[in-house]
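Input structure tokens:
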């Protein structure tokens, strides 16, 4: 798929830290309970660390206690791309930034969280950048 932000892997490597590159461009996962946004309650907008696209808001963030920031809905329905992921012997739904194709995390449904959508967008902190409300 072609993305609005289209860079070579060399360009991504030059712009991102090694850890950011591993998660955003190689679909890695940061260790649980280590990300800077796991427990933050700061109000604002969470954007893609790779391209700056607005992805989630603090109004949809909730405490899932899973080790990664969790949201029950993206900021806009077209902000993220959902892709079937059969890696690691599991069937999951990968979440990518719709603007640049960077890996963000996974979305899960039917876990029983008391949210309006019954979804948990489990997103790596390192994939995001928070812009606090002023």
């Amino acid at each position: 798929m072609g993305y609005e932000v289209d860079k070579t892997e060399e360009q991504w490597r030059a712009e991102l830290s090694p850890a950011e590159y591993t998660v955003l461009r190689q679909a890695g996962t940061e260790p649980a309970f280590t990300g800077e946004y796991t427990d933050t309650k700061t109000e604002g907008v969470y954007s893609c660390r790779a391209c700056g696209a607005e992805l989630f808001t603090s109004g949809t963030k909730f405490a899932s206690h899973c080790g990664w920031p969790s949201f029950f809905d993206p900021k806009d329905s077209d902000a993220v791309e959902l892709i079937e992921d059969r890696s690691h012997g599991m069937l999951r739904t990968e979440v990518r930034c719709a603007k640049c194709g960077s890996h963000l995390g996974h979305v899960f449904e039917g876990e029983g969280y008391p949210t309006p959508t019954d979804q948990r967008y489990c997103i790596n902190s390192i994939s995001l950048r928070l812009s606090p409300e002023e």
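The first strand starts at residue 44 and ends at 48. The chain has one domain: 9-132.
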